Amino acid sequence: VNQLPVEIISHIFALSRPYLPSLLIFSVEEFNKQKNIRGVLNPGQVCRNWRTIAHRTPELW
């Protein structure tokens, strides 16, 4: 994984993010469920390099 180009890792991160529809249609309970799922799949929590890549990937924000 460390030998992959940053662009590829960034694209993988973007493809693996959970789908979150518009927050306007969420109830508070549904938002909290989705937020918890998103935290589990956060690649920025793996290592410093992945955190940097995640922060520089606009599709994740």
What does this 3D model show about the protein?
- This protein is mainly alpha-helical.
- It has three helices and no strands.
- The chain has helices spanning 6-16, 28-40, 48-55.
- It is elongated, with a radius of gyration of 13 Å.
- The model has no long low-confidence stretch (mean pLDDT 76).
- It holds the Pfam family F-box-like.
- This is F-box domain-containing protein.
Beta strand count: 0
Fraction in helix = 40-55%
What's the end-to-end separation, in Å? 23 Å
For the biggest sheet, the summary is: none
Pfam family, one: F-box-like
Organism: Crepidotus variabilis
Domain F-box: 2-61
Protein name: F-box domain-containing protein
What is the fold's blueprint, element by element?
Blueprint: H1 6-16, H2 28-40, H3 48-55
